[in-house]
Amino acid sequence: MTLMNRRQAGRTLALSLLQATALATLSHAQTGAAAGGGPIRLALIESLSGSFANTGEAVFRNIAWAVERVNARGGVRLAQGGARNLMLSRYDSKGQNEEALSALRAAIDDGARIVLQGNSSATAAALLDAINKHNQREPGRQVLYLNYSAVDPALTNERCSFWHFRFDAHADMRMTALMDVVREDGQLQSVYLIGQDYSFGQAVLREARRQLGVLRPDVAIAGEELHAVGRIKDFAPYAVKIKASGAQAVITGNWGNDLTLLVKAAREVGYDGMFYTFYGNALGAPAALGEAGVGKVVAVADWLPNLPTEGSRQFYEAFRQRFPSPQDDYVHMRMQLLVEALAQALERAGSLQAADVARALEGVRVSLYGQSGWMRAEDHQFQQELVVGVMDRLGAPGVAFDVEGSGYGFRVLRRIAPEQAQMPTSCRMQRP
């Protein structure tokens, strides 16, 4: 495939959201921003086809909405060159690391100097290595990498990089929040650990074992299993083993269809235990479980729609107004904070040079609809509140909003303040 064909295949502009709204129907202020020197290119590299296409599209909606908000207020104001719009372009990794690396090369050739990715820590590690090498090799075309979901702890510990910033809590932080609920479950005697067989899934199971040993040594691990990522179409054999083990609960970091199909299979074989999850609050999981999931599915997130604050309600209603279709109902506060942090850093830096923007991102503090966080300069790990919720029926106390029109939402059980959620790091940051 020629370079030109590869670019055309990898690049799909945001037709429905950005071309149609942010470009074709710019307000006078936005037109002025674009005229100030052309848009600032952001490259989203995600699975936009294949098994995890729904997760990539969910990310795109979130980032695009955040970009629209920045552009609607006049874009980013630089010290030289006036105001500039943000422009988001899509690059399909097809769930493959090699495709992601090809997309990275195409994005850089297209002029993007800010790359966003998150769905898959394996892809994140591959992109991070490539960006580190590229930035050393080509100082005139250095790239910044913003990560919203790849939560392998190593990425801000032993593999930390000056060019990489993570806006999600890493797996150990999320597990600690879940364990705050697990340790108080006095009826729990045994658990089953299951996850995707790559760096993230392995990290989740490893930390689950460690924390159970410290916090609940009385709880037995009835089974432990890793499975191929995105390749299992029928989780019934796994569900049968879980049920046969006698485990009263499952702990899993599975995401996307690997989670939805797992919980669906568990329901179909009659497993009635608890599910302690990282991502059980959306992308089809509540609908797959239905009534069987009420009081049985626990999820940890940076934010949940039923967080009992007025700002949270306004934020969620604004998203649903922008994306009214139930199938599009998957909003992430952290992705909104990421774009706000980037806009702030660009203005502070007054420059589009990746190193300048990276320095401005270190220590940045942002707030939106009452939710806030800050970027720890030591390791480039964002610090924010974590929330743990349990699945319940729409209309139950604390469940004003459901998920994806399923009739089920998540009632907040715990709110963990940023100061409580943060963890030490082993990062030894090398700065240029």
Automatic annotation (TrEMBL):
Keywords: Signal. Pfam families: Peripla_BP_6. Residues 1-29 form the signal peptide. InterPro entries: BCAA_transport, Leu-bd, Peripla_BP_I. It comes from the Bacteria. The keyword DNA repair does not apply. Transmembrane segments: none annotated. Residues 39-391 form the Leucine-binding protein domain. Belongs to the leucine-binding protein family. This is Branched-chain amino acid ABC transporter substrate-binding protein. The lineage of its organism: Bacteria, Pseudomonadati, Pseudomonadota, Betaproteobacteria, Burkholderiales.
